[in-house]
Amino acid sequence: MLRKVLPTSSAVKVARKCVFRNASTAAPIRPRICIVGAGPAGFYTAQYILKHLDNSDIDIVEKLPVPFGLVRFGVAPDHPEVKNVINTFTKTAENPRVRFLGNLCLGKDFTLEELRERYHAVLLTYGAEQDNTLNIPNENLQNVLSAREFVAWYNGLPGFENLNPDLSGKSLTLLGQGNVAVDVARIVLSSVDDLKKTDITEYALETLSRSRIDTVHLVGRRGPLQAAFTIKELREMLKLSSCTTRWRADDFDHVEESIPNLPRPRKRITELMVKSLAEQAPNNVPPAGRCFQPIFFRSPVNFVGSGKVEAVEYVVNRLADGRAVPTEQRETIATDLVCRSIGYRAVSVDNHINFDARKGCVNNAGGRVLKRNLTGSDQTIDDIEDKYETGLYASGWLATGPTGVILTTMNNSFGVADLVCRDFNSNTIRLNGSRPGLELAGRPYVSWNGWKAIDSEEVRLGQAKGKPREKLTRIETMLQIASNASD
């Protein structure tokens, strides 16, 4: 059995040379696995492998000094119940067979080739961090942002603390109708007094307290029957204090008669929209307080403005077989701030990753990363035996694209982790020698104890303000705190 001599003096440090010794020449070789990315996909794959692959050792490598990815930086601050999954992730990280190595970045601090040489298996789970764009005129106007940037700003993702979105205007337009867009709408339209009880960043609270935005448009290219937000998110918007939801009645032509034939989840959310529409005040009665206005059947074709966005020009769509088909009709709606919320895409951080730039994800078959040059008898993915990179996998949004919720990522990651376990048990991944793990010499990294020190400091800062935590946003500050923690 091989045992690694770990650094013992600090949680962020330049590690000493790794030292190994053979406990016994007859001892079984332990599967050594590296997971790149400490978000939900990474932790779920680790959780499954720990349970189903005996004696495996796992390193979870993360480019930030802190773990949890989108659970920490993507989940809305007023949804603390969704973040409870962190408790499960913490149990996984504190398993003696797991190491957390923060502040280490694939493509910068080490290469994929290096990982594949030093581990029996490598799982890429680092997510999707780049915005899709509309590629329409004037998209670079001031005050045209992405919802991802806005969420990263109020959730304290390092590098976004200086975004300073301009909330001095009267209206915000969100392009896209998924849950992320609704999250942004809810945060902007919520009472600051309610947000003060969450882990939203203090600088975001300060900016939101001065916000003059009183109308938020939520614009989708298709109709109410195709709305991408969930019923939970819609209910929250309808119950928001001092905020009125205003539907366009024309958007609901023939919708009510379709309800009996809808699948149950779609039926419930459609019934809720129709009920809300029936209860709203006539259009000639101005809404009291702030207003949330979903708008359907519109696709943006141009941003209007001189230097700064002033309006969005839309083409009016009709539905054909569930698809949005543009008509000759146009509509221009004034706005002071725009956030695109049209999805994310992953990026390739290493030249040796077989990456599909068009789809924005790793080329894979069910989680197994495909070779760049396919071999085998018929040159198709169906003939898979010679077509995937042995011991290399991808899961989560990096593999599937940005779809679904955390539960979706869990199911995908469990499935990929099961493949890993089966490949070890079938000897597809051969344990023909021990693997040393990542060489840490000269690389300042954050251990799990380092994260716990950061966590404790954030909780302490939050308690002083009546919040669950006050997130640190400067990496230098995180590293300094972690460096004082003992392993």
Automatic annotation (TrEMBL):
It comes from the Eukaryota. Keywords: Electron transport, FAD, Flavoprotein, Mitochondrion, NADP, Oxidoreductase, Transport. Its cofactor is FAD. SUPFAM superfamilies: Nucleotide-binding domain (SSF51971). One of its GO terms (biological process) is cholesterol metabolic process. It is found in: Mitochondrion. It catalyses: 2 reduced [adrenodoxin] + NADP(+) + H(+) = 2 oxidized [adrenodoxin] + NADPH. Pathway: Steroid metabolism; cholesterol metabolism. FAD binds at A41, E62, L70, L106, W397, G404, V405, I406. One of its GO terms (cellular component) is mitochondrion. Its main location: mitochondrion. One of its GO terms (molecular function) is oxidoreductase activity. It is an enzyme of class 1 (oxidoreductase). InterPro entries: FAD/NAD-bd_sf (IPR036188), Ferredox_Rdtase (IPR055275), Ferredox_Rdtase_adrenod (IPR021163). It holds the Pfam family NAD_binding_8. Its EC number is 1.18.1.6. NADP(+) binds at Q177, G178, N179, V180, R221, R222, E233, G404. Belongs to the ferredoxin--NADP reductase type 1 family. PANTHER family: GLUTAMATE SYNTHASE 1 [NADH], CHLOROPLASTIC-LIKE. This is NADPH:adrenodoxin oxidoreductase, mitochondrial. It comes from Anopheles coluzzii.
